[in-house]
């Protein structure tokens, strides 16, 4: 069984922000594979189903970004999921809009949701799919950039990144991480 985690912030106020790319990928996977993600457990919205013959749990932590690890560790412990079976999807300012990057492991960088997960797991060896959101054009406050309204001209390129990330997760499940990295990185 794979645990697929999309990072974001709960509540309607954040649904259309750059910081919710992980939630958007989970929503897209759930819609494509008819997985109901409306259940609540371990401080997350979640659902389980089958994607490419692989049993999965899709989760969207509801702890707010900076505490995402609290929810993730509860799922890992309850379902006895190996870190080899964990995939985390999140936004990344160091990647251009509409691009994605897949990694087998690595530091959390400056992303507070990933810092929370890595700190609580005391391990950084799990798959991550990063969705590019680009950097602010001006000396804009980073917090306002990631949780502020998305300008109209960026909506479509961000959707393209979400679509690529969804396809990357499917490729990981269908074939493997190396195949996905070769295809999408």
Describe the structure in your own words:
- This protein is of the alpha/beta class.
- Helix content is 38%, strand content 22%.
- The protein is built from six helices and seven strands, in the order βαβββαββαβααα.
- A seven-stranded mixed sheet has the order 2-3-4-1-5-7-6, sandwiched between helices.
- A hairpin with a 2-residue loop joins strand 2 (39-41) and strand 3.
- It is globular, with a radius of gyration of 15 Å.
- The protein starts with a strand and ends with a helix.
- The mean pLDDT is 95.
Would you spell out the secondary-structure blueprint of this structure?
Blueprint: E1 2-6, H1 21-32, E2 39-41, E3 44-51, E4 54-61, H2 68-79, E5 86-92, E6 100-103, H3 112-121, E7 127-132, H4 142-147, H5 152-174, H6 177-184
Task: Give me a quick take on this structure.
It is built from six helices and seven strands.
């Amino acid at each position: 069984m794979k645990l697929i985690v999309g990072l974001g912030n709960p509540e309607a106020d954040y649904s259309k922000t750059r910081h919710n790319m992980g939630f958007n990928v989970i929503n897209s996977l759930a819609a494509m594979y008819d997985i109901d993600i409306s259940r609540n457990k371990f401080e997350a919205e979640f659902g389980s189903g089958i994607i490419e013959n692989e049993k999965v749990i899709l989760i969207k932590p509801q702890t707010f970004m900076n505490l995402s690890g609290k929810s993730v560790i509860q799922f890992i412990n309850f379902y006895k999921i190996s870190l080899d079976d964990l995939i985390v999807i999140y936004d990344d300012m160091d990647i251009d809009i509409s691009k994605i990057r897949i990694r087998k492991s690595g530091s959390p960088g400056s992303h507070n949701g990933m810092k929370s997960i890595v700190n609580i797991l005391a391990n950084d060896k799990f798959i991550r799919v990063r969705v590019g959101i680009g950097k602010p054009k001006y000396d804009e406050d980073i917090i306002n950039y990631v949780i502020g309204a998305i300008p109209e001209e960026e909506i479509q390129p961000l959707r393209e990144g979400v679509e690529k990330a969804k396809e990357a997760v499917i490729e990981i499940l269908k074939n493997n991480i190396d195949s996905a990295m070769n295809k999408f990185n």
